[in-house]
């Protein structure tokens, strides 16, 4: 700008800058100040207020592409409230911060979809309402532009799905209400039904607390009201935002950056404009037509799905085998919604215990981590190898103040467990954040048979179990040999221990804990869990007590699992080594915890798709026999693929350690497991192991087969064959076959255990 034209006061004039930009308006000295127009060399034009060379105040900016913005500017940025019109016809009206949509706003997309709600960093994030041009509506939580958290989807035909959502797909517990009056309560996995659920026919008595307008809840447990209340909520947020902008102070920032045109978020809505009604499968439930609701209007059906495929169904009533017949429908829903665990909250019976545990672990892990890593010594083991610290509420020279109760903390063998965590590739910072971060632990609603209570970290990587004093003594006694065993065998299936602690409260009550790895920490849904000992006495589960969260026993297992020959050899080689170790420590009562994820074959998926099409047209599966529910051709499809391993492309478990297994199908190379529509996983011994499950159907000679993914681990390894167990063996032997009871000599227990598993995993 020419120095001759400079002035000390505010004056209006025009000038061409050295870079070719043009400004016409008021100046304060040599800088734009007040009202003025600025044109960049690329054709962009701003007309509005300036403050000391920065666009600040109300203004309009237009781009050569045809996009425009009218509203607030601060310090050179689009900041405040305003309206942006994109070249594609999309319009956003709402709050901005630093050139990005932030806060409350409404977006109308070029395809006539609209979103009204909270934004963060230019994407829907928080609570909002999305309306598709076709009329479908979603009201609920968002994260980074996708439906995430609790929300309600309502289709134009009246179908409604109230569920948890993940990355735009229904994922978790929820329920759908169909326009016909039918209702399904269950779980979803990545957009499809998966697991157990309950189906209410049209005309059935549906639990009153399922009304979407009254009972939809958010992640924090607050109520999500009806659509009219949502409009009030969003409107109040708009008013609050406008008041904040009206009273806000303008500050100095920088020249604006280009902002991209608004685009329509990508949502996965494979269901079209409605949910398939999923009327009961007549071949499984009844021989009469379902349209005769006068006859069957009170029928309620228990169902099980695998990746959207209905695999079992039975009427729920007085003789139902899944839930106690005395339970009401309302109680059934409440139990399902709560699930097998609950987050510990302030006022919970375990709240102070959780705070003490988190304080202690944070202290001892933080204290031991800076110590240089070294080989363990003999004095690192035993009850005298410990850290003891007193934690008063007001804090001390060594401990921080806290809001729990006074307690003593004891950490056993800290150097040994520090090395074990390193051995199992557990990062100390991740370990502390997982257990001691801002989130609460989860308490399992059903404690173990021994009376132990189980807790899970929020990310479910770690299991924390309370111990009896006798179990603690056994663990400390066997710890040196345990350490050597897991060090020698990378692929051991034995429980992985990461820490042993004790809390002593003021009243003298002592609570002992052990921290272990959670072998079911996987993004795959575990459809069945089995606790297998190899004994038969008392090793079945009463049908009245079976539900989705039940861990079944030996006699409940009806499948045999066929795995790759080389994997089977490696598996039983490791089982034999682990059993020999436990036998050497005189341990019994251990078991193989088996988790099974079923994959739905493609021919069943096709059948379900065909069935849904018929049902949406008002035709039940009983009227159409073109697609059978079961197919005897085992080779019709596979639920997974094995491909050559590629480092960095797989999702592994939380505590994977050791070498990957090699598959004959992959030319005896290390392989990854690819599950279509799900992901890619590392295959290791006992982790993400694909297999073929076979079950002989009792009514026919047909064999039911499924592709499955297995998770295996040896648990409950802290019971010695002591005097009380010998007495138990002698007493039970008078009534039962001595070989069928669990309490037997460690040598016999080990042999029986391996022999039973060989039948579970037969040679091909």
Protein architecture, described:
The chain is of the alpha+beta class. Among the domains are: 18-200, lipopolysaccharide transport protein A fold (Sandwich), CATH 2.60.450.20; 341-518, Phosphatidylinositol Phosphate Kinase II Beta, CATH 3.30.800; 560-607 and 639-760, Phosphatidylinositol Phosphate Kinase Iibeta, Chain: A, domain 2 (2-Layer Sandwich), CATH 3.30.810. Helix 6 (351-368) runs antiparallel to helix 8 and helix 10 packs antiparallel against helix 13. Residues 1-10, 211-228, 230-235, 237-297, 318-338 and 603-637 have low confidence and may be disordered. It catalyses: a 1,2-diacyl-sn-glycero-3-phospho-(1D-myo-inositol 4-phosphate) + ATP = a 1,2-diacyl-sn-glycero-3-phospho-(1D-myo-inositol-4,5-bisphosphate) + ADP + H(+). It is an enzyme of class 2 (transferase).
Task: Catalogue the unreliable spans.
Answer: 1-10, 211-228, 230-235, 237-297, 318-338, 603-637
**Largest sheet: number of strands, sense, barrel closure:** 20 strands, antiparallel
Question: How many H/I helices?
Answer: 13
The helix fraction, in percent, is 10-25%
User: Structural class of the secondary elements?
Assistant: alpha+beta
Shape: globular
- Report Rg: 32 Å
Return the CATH class of the domain at 18-200.
Answer: Mainly Beta
Q: Average pLDDT value?
A: 77
Task: Tell me which CATH architecture of the domain at 18-200 applies here.
Answer: Sandwich
Report, as a whole number of angstroms, the end-to-end distance.
87 Å
Range of strand content: 25-35%
CATH T-level fold name of the domain at 18-200: lipopolysaccharide transport protein A fold
Number of strands: 40
């Amino acid at each position: 700008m020419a120095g001759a034209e400079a002035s000390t006061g505010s004056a209006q004039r025009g000038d061409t800058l050295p870079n070719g930009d043009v400004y016409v308006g008021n100046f304060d000295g040599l800088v734009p100040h007040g009202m003025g127009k600025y044109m960049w060399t690329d054709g962009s034009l701003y007309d509005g207020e300036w403050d000391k060379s920065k666009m600040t105040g109300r203004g309009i900016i237009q781009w050569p592409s045809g996009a425009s913005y009218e509203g607030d500017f601060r310090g050179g940025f689009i900041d405040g409230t305003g309206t942006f019109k994109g070249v594609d016809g999309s319009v956003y009206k709402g709050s901005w911060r630093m050139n990005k949509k932030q806060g409350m706003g409404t977006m109308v997309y070029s395809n006539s979809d609209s979103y009204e709600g909270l934004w963060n960093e230019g994407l829907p994030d928080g609570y909002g309402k999305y309306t598709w041009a076709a009329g479908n509506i979603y009201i609920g939580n968002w994260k980074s532009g996708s439906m995430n958290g609790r929300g309600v989807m309502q289709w134009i035909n009246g179908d409604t799905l109230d569920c948890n959502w993940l990355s735009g797909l229904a994922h978790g517990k929820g329920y759908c209400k169909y326009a016909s009056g039918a209702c399904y309560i269950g779980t979803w996995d990545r957009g499809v039904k998966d697991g157990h659920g309950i189906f209410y026919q049209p005309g059935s008595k549906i639990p009153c607390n399922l009304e979407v307008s009254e009972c939809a809840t958010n992640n924090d447990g607050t109520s999500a009201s009806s659509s009219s209340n949502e409009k009030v909520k969003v409107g109040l947020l708009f008013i609050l935002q406008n008041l904040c902008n009206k009273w806000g102070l303008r500050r100095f920032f920088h020249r604006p950056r280009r902002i991209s045109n608004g685009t329509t978020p990508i949502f996965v809505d494979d269901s079209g404009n409605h949910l398939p009604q999923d009327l009961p499968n007549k071949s499984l439930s009844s021989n009469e037509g379902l349209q005769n609701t006068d006859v069957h209007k009170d029928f309620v059906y228990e169902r099980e799905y695998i990746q959207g495929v209905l695999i079992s169904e039975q009427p729920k009533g007085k003789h139902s085998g899944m839930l106690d017949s005395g339970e009401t429908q309302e109680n059934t829903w409440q139990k399902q919604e709560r699930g097998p665990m609950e987050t510990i909250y302030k006022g919970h019976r375990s709240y102070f215990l959780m705070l003490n545990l988190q304080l202690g672990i944070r202290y001892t892990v933080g204290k031991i981590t800076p110590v240089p890593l070294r080989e363990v010594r003999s004095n690192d083991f035993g009850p005298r190898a410990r850290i003891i610290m007193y934690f008063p509420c007001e804090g001390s020279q060594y401990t921080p103040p806290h809001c729990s109760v006074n307690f003593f903390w004891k950490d056993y063998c800290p150097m040994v467990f520090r090395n074990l965590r390193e051995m199992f590739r557990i990062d100390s910072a991740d370990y502390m954040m997982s257990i001691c971060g801002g989130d609460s632990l989860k308490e399992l609603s059903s404690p173990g048979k021994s009376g132990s209570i189980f807790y899970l970290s929020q990310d479910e990587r770690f299991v924390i179990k309370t111990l009896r004093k006798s179990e603690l003594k056994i663990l400390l006694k066997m710890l040196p040999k345990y350490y050597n065993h897991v060090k020698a065998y990378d692929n051991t299936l034995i429980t992985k221990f990461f820490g042993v602690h004790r809390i002593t409260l003021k009243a003298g009550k002592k609570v002992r804990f052990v921290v272990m790895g959670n072998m079911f920490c996987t993004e795959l849904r575990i459809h069945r869990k089995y606790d297998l000992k190899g004994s038969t006495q008392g090793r079945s589960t009463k049908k009245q007590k079976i539900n989705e969260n039940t861990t079944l026993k030996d006699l409940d297992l009806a499948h045999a699992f066929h795995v790759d020959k080389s994997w089977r050899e490696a598996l039983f080689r490791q089982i034999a080594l682990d059993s020999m170790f436990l036998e050497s420590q005189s341990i019994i009562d251990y078991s193989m915890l088996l988790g099974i994820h079923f994959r739905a074959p493609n021919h069943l998926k096709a059948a379900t798709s065909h069935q849904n099409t018929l049902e949406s047209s008002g035709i039940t599966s009983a009227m159409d026999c073109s697609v059978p529910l079961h197919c005897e051709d085992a080779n019709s499809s596979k639920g997974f693929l094995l491909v050559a391993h590629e480092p960095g492309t797989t999702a592994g478990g939380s505590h994977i350690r050791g070498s990957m297994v090699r598959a004959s199908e992959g030319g005896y190379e290390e392989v990854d497991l690819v599950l279509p529509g799900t992901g890619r996983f590392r295959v290791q011994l006992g982790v993400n192991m694909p297999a073929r499950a076979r079950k002989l159907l009792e009514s026919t000679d047909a064999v039911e087969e499924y592709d499955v993914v297995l998770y295996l681990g040896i648990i409950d390894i802290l019971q010695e064959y002591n005097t009380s167990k010998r007495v138990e063996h002698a007493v039970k032997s008078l009534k039962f076959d001595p070989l069928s009871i669990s309490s037997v000599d460690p040598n016999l227990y080990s042999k029986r255990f391996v022999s039973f598993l060989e039948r579970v995993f037969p040679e091909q």
